[in-house]
Design brief:
This protein is mainly alpha-helical. The chain has one domain. 79% of the residues lie in helices and 0% in strands. The chain is elongated and about 50 Å long.
Amino acid sequence: MDRKELNVLLNGFFGFFIEDRANAYLANRIRSRLQELIGCESPELDGLTRWDLLARVRDVASGFYKGILCRGAGSRKLRNHLLELEEWADAKLIEEAERQQKDATNA
């Protein structure tokens, strides 16, 4: 997965909420922050590994989830969506760690 693929994923992931007026502002902020952190448009971040990208997605999703949960902001559906994104990134990080361990064992 490269940054462009991840950008497409994020756009799809938050597309529903951007169309929903009640959550549009918050969803746009979250998506923009994620895109900024993963460097979708930044050539100086070309050295990021898949691990780095996934960790950034997880951290931002977790931070926004906790923030909007504490404030009672956003809909339940948006909060659940962020939680799903965090869990997805965690699962991908575990897969990546297992892949790296397997590669190291085979080398």
